[in-house]
Amino acid sequence: MDALLLTHACQYVGPGAVPVLLREQHRLVCHDTGFVNPDVARNFEIAHAGAVALRGQTPDAITEELRERGLTIDAVVSNDVFPNTPLPIEDVSLETLRQSVEALLIFPYRLTQLLLPPMKLAHRGTFVFITSARYLQPEAGFSVATSVRAGTTAFALALAKEAAPFGIQVNVVAPNYLYSEAYYPRARFIDDPAGRREIASKVPMGRLGEPQEIGELIAFLASGRSPFATGQVVNFTGGWP
Known about the structure:
Elements: E1 2-6, H1 14-23, E2 28-30, H2 38-47, E3 52-53, H3 59-69, E4 72-79, H4 94-122, E5 125-130, H5 143-163, E6 168-175, H6 186-189, H7 193-202, H8 211-223, E7 232-236
């Protein structure tokens, strides 16, 4: 059975994407670090009827579990996360940099290596990589997120070039100022008037992006309805910068 795989389904763009993808009647298969706990995985499936919560945590474990469940993936939303801790470049530990590269670049790279060959054989498939628009205007303190996310964007564009002759579509969604508890938590940037003013001073739309708004964009790009649009970076930023 063909399905769409969403990584880190409970984090970053996941909460906005899951309900929209289910509404679009995707056979939705989800990975999340929390799913190592069987109760968390079961509760997720109950809350999101029709979704499958995988237990595998590494790309190799995920693809093995897909094989065991008899699931063929024809669309991937690579939604990868790593904490942002603003630091001057000279204060960033190399271990933090390595962990970020592992989470934001190596994980999606390896997952792509494993899922791409069957798509090539089928001459169809779709990848959507969720990265970041920070590259448009780098900020002091965010060298790790800016550089590693940009690396993943570049990888996606390279993949788009290689995969296009096989009918495989690859695009990037690059958010900034999207509400998520990981990066722009509600208590600071929505509930706090000072936080709302800070966002309004930077974002032309005057607010954070809503999870469902980015979910709608992801669902369209993952749908395959416009396959000639490939190798594109769509900035989801409310007009910033």
